[in-house]
From TrEMBL:
Similarity section: Belongs to the glycogen phosphorylase family.
Pfam families linked to this entry: Phosphorylase
SUPFAM superfamilies in alphabetical order: UDP-Glycosyltransferase/glycogen phosphorylase (SSF53756)
Catalytic activity: [(1->4)-alpha-D-glucosyl](n) + phosphate = [(1->4)-alpha-D-glucosyl](n-1) + alpha-D-glucose 1-phosphate
Function, in words: Phosphorylase is an important allosteric enzyme in carbohydrate metabolism. Enzymes from different sources differ in their regulatory mechanisms and in their natural substrates. However, all known phosphorylases share catalytic and structural properties.
Cellular component, GO, one term: cytoplasm
GO molecular function: glycogen phosphorylase activity; pyridoxal phosphate binding
Keywords: Allosteric enzyme, Carbohydrate metabolism, Glycosyltransferase, Pyridoxal phosphate, Transferase
Name of the molecule in the record: Alpha-1,4 glucan phosphorylase
Cofactors: pyridoxal 5'-phosphate
Length: 819
């Protein structure tokens, strides 16, 4: 059946945005799309109706943005990321549409509490931590600064996992965020593509031409698109987040079903359903490794097929690809896209190999997020070749081209050749995804000044020598809309009243707050806002954990993925040492302090899960010891996500950014805390270095070894046992932990964890302990001088505007994407 459309038919008029029309629209959605009237409607019914009414207003801008891009023939950015930690979208969308007052008035007319309803929206379980939240901030900023863009990822049914704490241990449960549907998204059935796995490659000889390679796959499934509009500030542009869901080509094999093999009849559905169910399936076993690799190829292939289809549909010239398309790889997870692009250009679009490589390199950019070699991803060659036989051929062909150039034209040594190769030959032969991403991109960027320089000297040393013009720095940023305006409305109102509204469009205009930092009246109001935010967090802790905390205490917060290099362990050990000091010296004037922890550990990461258990064991003992007199409490907040962060970050007095120097690429939590008026205690790692430069060394508390000193200590083989035995506080704290003071049910629970500090202390926990403890006492001294503390807190907010993701995106657009 063909459908004839008339392009001259007018579009419907834009939806009205006054309170009366919004209220009417919400009732209409409640009636005709939810199927309820206001008398029987439940809170979740109201939530859906409100979202649908707001979505209508977004669509008007979405259509206009798309039409504007198409008619101008603009270059588009395509941002490929395995994670997009977008959080709740309702409040974000209302704010960026500038409908906050109107929607509140409309809900007042309807007698519905918007704040209460908005809390029902589930957090989209599409990410894990900083990588995914950065991608979400970047999508919002691309729309804000008017860059046409698509984000591409996976529509996970369960995402990472929902964390519960049972007897102090992390328990992983499915995160059923899609259980009741997602009213923000649009299913695009027409945007579906076949994805292949396995099989063989046939060679077809062609007279007078290069042979043609045809991939004959053993497995096929469909990738189907779901689109979510991403609204920029003041709805300047609305871009698209396109997420892929795996669907079987044959949902049920009827011959097997009718033969009684009911499970076998559904095997294709099961395979497809499994592929997009969970983010980062545990890869401690071969099946988990294969599933992760399948996920990465699945979304990469679907995205590239979609990009090339759109490009050819509009421009009909594959050679214009770098002029009209910029594809960006957010870490190594989508690195297989480089080889998939080669396959599509050569096998589908008939481009010669050398030209295909030139087009590929000119089109791709790559952001590296880690200095940990194991995080660059490598895959066993047999696994890769079994799943992707054609891609393995192309990897060998590209490798030959690269290595011949490196040997003949760059004079690379044998060792350099080994490091540059796309195949790691040391032991089990493995495909190096980091090398593929680097060599297949014209730009490779780090995410802080320190990280970028370390990349050149460590993980990409030989690749940088081969291509010294490719590595550049783009320091991370955060969207001030989500991480100041929306999560901290009281502070935003105070700032607007004090310096006006210019900072809403240009975060660097926050600098005007420097003029009032020492004004006692402003300090009092700033401190009052902080206390309100602390009361809100105290209430959340009371509701979730049943624990009472004093909002007058210092709120000391470390929230991030649980990992040994992020050194939650250092924080816990210092808490144990402080506990001993408070009990031993009750006559001293101790600062009341609440130490908050939150974050998830990878399911197969034993030590990270043990650190969570230790935090909860220490909390149980300290929080119930009357001799502490409430001067110290430890709180582990379960199931850390974006919505929880939006409550915890504005309430923080002290931000813990204490990773081992040289191991945190950048961090963005450090930026979120500081812009909300928290002081940072941290090492000179990642973006902490640049933050110190911007906020002033006097307004941040820095301690510990530098990255160079860490490298030197490791190279010389430092003696952690000697360090521990030379520190009375550290040795006593470790003795208490290892001897079972905090684990009466299992006295040996932490013996190996503590033993690792004595044996090698790779993450420099013992090496930095005394400096960290001294820095914490420096923090106490500042806290006791409230005017001094307030000045430093205000200056942190005033001087963090440069760390906006708007600035970062403008740099990407100018230097990498050429948009």
């Amino acid at each position: 059946m063909s459908i004839v459309t008339n392009p001259d038919l007018p579009l419907p008029p834009p939806r009205f945005t006054d309170a009366e029309h919004l209220a009417s629209s919400i009732i209409e959605k409640l009636t005709y799309q939810v199927g309820k009237n206001s008398i029987v409607a439940q809170p979740h019914d109201w939530l859906r109706a409100i979202i649908l009414a707001i979505r209508d207003r977004i669509i008007d801008n979405w259509m206009e943005s798309t039409t504007r891009t198409y008619e101008a023939g603009s270059k588009r950015v395509y941002y490929l990321s395995l994670e997009f930690l977008i959080g709740r979208l309702l409040r974000d969308s209302i704010s960026n549409l500038e409908l906050v007052d109107q929607i509140n008035e409309a809900m007042g007319k309807l007698g519905v509490d918007l704040a209460e309803i908005a809390q029902l929206e589930p957090d989209a379980a599409l990410g894990n931590g900083g990588l995914g939240r950065l991608a979400a901030c970047f999508m919002e900023s691309m729309a804000t600064v008017d860059i046409p863009a698509y984000g591409y990822g996976i529509r996970y049914v369960n995402g990472l996992f929902r964390q519960e704490i049972a007897d102090g241990w992390q328990v992983e449960l499915p995160e059923n965020w899609l259980a009741h549907g997602n009213p923000w998204e649009f299913h695009r059935r027409e945007s579906s593509y076949e994805i292949y796995f396995g099989g063989k490659v046939d060679i077809i000889e062609q007279r007078g031409a290069e042979p043609k390679y045809v991939w004959k796959p053993a497995e096929r499934m469909m990738a189907e698109a779901y689109d979510t509009p991403v609204v920029g500030w003041r709805a300047n542009r609305v871009n698209t987040l396109r997420l892929w869901s795996a669907e079987p080509i044959d949902p049920i094999l009827l011959d097997k079903f009718n033969a009684g093999d009911h499970i076998g009849a559904l095997q294709e559905s099961t395979k497809a359903e499994t592929l997009t169910r969970v983010l980062y399936p545990a890869d401690a076993n071969p099946a988990g490794q294969e599933l992760r690799l399948r996920q990465e190829y699945f979304f990469s292939s679907a995205s590239l097929q979609d990009i090339l289809r759109r490009h050819m549909q509009q421009f009909n010239d594959i050679k214009l690809l770098p002029e009209k398309v910029a594809i960006h790889l957010n870490d190594t997870h989508p690195a297989v896209s480089v080889i998939e692009m080669m396959r599509l250009l050569i096998d589908i679009y008939g481009v010669e190999f050398d030209e295909a490589w030139e087009l590929t390199v000119a089109t791709f950019g790559y952001t590296n997020h880690t200095l940990l070699p194991e995080a660059l991803e490598t895959w066993p060659v047999p696994l890769f070749e079994r799943l992707f036989p054609r891609h393995m051929q192309l990897i060998y062909a590209v490798n030959a081209k690269i290595l011949l150039h490196a040997r003949k034209e760059a004079g690379a040594s044998d060792e350099a050749i080994r490091q540059i190769s796309l195949i790691d030959e040391g032991g089990e032969r493995r495909v190096r995804m980091g090398n593929i991403a680097f060599l297949g991109s014209h730009s490779i960027n780090g995410v802080s000044a320190l990280h970028t320089e370390l990349m050149k000297d460590t993980v990409f040393y030989n690749l940088h020598r081969l291509h010294p013009d490719r590595i550049n720095n783009k320091t991370n940023g955060i969207t001030p809309r989500r991480w100041l305006k929306e999560c901290n409305p009281k502070l935003t109102a105070l700032i607007r009243e004090t310096i006006g509204d210019d900072f809403l469009d240009d975060a660097e205009k926050l600098q005007a707050l420097n003029d009032v930092a020492e004004d006692s009246s402003f300090q009092e109001r700033f401190e009052a806002v902080k206390r309100e935010n602390k009361v809100r967090l105290s209430n959340l802790v009371g509701e979730r954990l049943g624990t009472r905390i004093d909002p007058n205490a210092m709120f000391d917060i470390q929230i991030k993925r649980i990992h040994e290099y992020k050194r939650q362990l250092l924080n816990i050990i210092e808490a144990v040492a402080l506990y001993d000091q408070i009990r031993s010296h009750p006559e001293m004037d101790w600062v009341p302090r609440v130490k908050f922890f939150a974050g998830k550990a990878a399911p197969s990461y034993h030590n990270a899960k043990l650190i969570i258990k230790l935090a909860n064991d220490v909390a149980r003992v300290i929080n119930n010891d009357p001799s502490v007199r409430g001067l110290l409490k430890i709180i582990f907040v379960p199931n850390y996500n974006v919505s929880t962060a939006e409550v915890m970050i504005p309430a923080a007095d002290l931000s813990e950014q204490i990773s081992t120097a040289g191991m945190e690429a950048s961090g963005t939590g450090n930026m979120k805390f500081a812009i909300n008026g928290a002081l940072t205690i941290g090492t000179l790692d990642g973006a902490n270095v640049e933050m110190r430069d911007w906020v002033g060394a006097e307004n941040i508390v820095i301690f510990g070894l530098t990255a160079d000193e860490v490298d030197e200590a490791r190279a010389k083989g430092h003696n952690p046992r000697e360090i521990i035995e030379g520190s009375k506080e550290l040795s006593q704290a470790l003795s208490a932990i290892s001897s079972g003071v905090f684990s009466h049910d299992d006295p040996g629970r932490y013996t190996e964890l503590v033993g690792g500090l004595y044996d090698h202390d790779w993450f420099m926990v013992a090496a930095d302990f005394d400096a960290y403890a001294a820095a914490q006492r420096e923090v106490d001294a500042i806290w006791n001088d409230k005017p001094a503390w307030n000045v430093k807190a205000i200056r942190n907010t005033a001087r963090m505007g440069w760390f906006s993701s708007d600035r970062a995106i403008r740099e990407y657009a100018r230097d990498i994407w050429r948009v």
